[in-house]
Amino acid sequence: MTSNGNPDSRLSQRDKIRSPADRNNTFRLGVCLILWCCHVLLGTPLTTQNVVIVIIDGARYSETFGDTNRTYIPVMDNLALEGTYLEHFYNDSFTYTSRALPALWCGTWTGVRDTLYEGVATKYAVQPTLFEYFRRQTGAPAEKCYYVLKYITSLWLPSFHSQYGPQYWPTYHSVGSTDVDVLGQALWVMDNYHPQLLWIYLADVDGAGHSGDWSRYTSAIQTADSIVGVIWDALQNDPFYADQTTMFVTNDHGRHDDQHGGFSGHGDGCDGCRHIMFLAVGLHVRQNQLATQVRCIPDMAVTAADLLGVDPEYATGEVMEEMFVPIEVQPSYDHTVPPRFILYTNYPNTFNPHTTIRYELPEEGLIQLAVFDMVGREIVRLMDGYSAPGSYQLAWNGRNQAGLEVPSGLYLARLNLPGNTRTIKMVLLR
Ligand SMILES: [Zn+2]
Ligand SMILES: [Zn+2]
Questions:
Q1: Which domains does the chain have, with CATH numbers?
Q2: What is the pLDDT of residues 154-187, one digit of tens each?
Q3: Separation of CA 98 and ligand 2 centre (Å)
Q4: What CA–CA distance (Å, rounded) separates 132 from 137?
Q5: Which residue in 302, 306, 323 sits closest to 108, CA to CA?
Q6: Which residue among 68, 109, 360, 396 is least packed, with the fewest CB closer than 10 Å?
Q7: Smallest-distance ligand from the CA of 251
Q8: How do residues 376-394 score in pLDDT, each as one tens digit?
Q9: Is 353 helix (H, G, I), strand (E, B) or coil?
Q10: How many whole angstroms from 275 Cα to the centroid of ligand 2?
């Protein structure tokens, strides 16, 4: 994966995408489209975006998405209609914060080591973190990468890895004493710095859980739920973030189930401690989807890195592709040749597993583009909606509607405009 230059130039490119009529910027648009086309070929989501990650420490799945009534998370329940939540997301190793949080940062279960940092005894992660990958590979300055949490005397630190390390750490903003304070600080940071990678750590649910007071614990979850809603609304109301941002909400660990001592503690690796929530909402995230694939903590940072266009080279997790729409559709801005109704041969063909499909629409209309197998079953619908005339291209990632890989074979892509159909054959060879 390539780096993307400094974020300010990226922002201006993004603005250009929004106003294609601006003829004075044809060259920059061209550059932008070329970058975009490279992305289509790679089949990954666009990199011109922001990622906001909210960690709710120690909320048990049975009080979040595992509760069918969503008693304590009405806001995230609503948000899930706009996004994807995972039914099987797990802490697959140490079910306590000092190891799970670094694994969330690093995209792998990293060792942690004791150190004395600025006179304070603390620990650091052995492997580089998402923050370090992002800052080193994109050249983003410290204020484009923020970590907001309430005040604690000693931070757990990112890595001192020889290729990464302190010069690529995030800007820590550790102020206040409650999750609500953290919300206020996060909004302030967003307003003032517009970080492209923003990590928000909410600690109160775990603290309340340890108190053994059920109503305090559940009300801390309700507060965290409201905070997630306020953050999301703020993102949508800020032109820097609106429609250009993906938000993840998850936990570092759950809490004991009732057979293992109940909600007041955690750390034995029972299902209550392991099973955690994962909600994704935003750019390219499938809407109103429950994803059933089994995923684990290391997959989060790797997925976030993919969205940011960076390579988490020491991470072991996987990109959770099932959360994202398998397509990138953008009209081409070259209208010098009037479009005809054409479905071009996909490129490449044969492919593994990504291929690009181009088509032209001479008139506006309701179009469908779907992939079928040779017995006529629809595998995935890549486009279904009203389109303006123009040239389009999109990518298929060799996955079906549920986000699962389909086997090698011959597939048909069929473009349908009312009264008009075009079909091409595509060979997937894994
Ligand atoms: Zn705890
Ligand atoms: Zn447990």
A1: 1-43 (no CATH), 50-323 (3.40.720.10), 327-428 (2.60.40.4070)
A2: 889 999 999 999 999 999 999 999 999 999 999 9
A3: 16
A4: 8
A5: 302
A6: 68
A7: 1
A8: 999 998 887 777 777 787 8
A9: coil
A10: 10
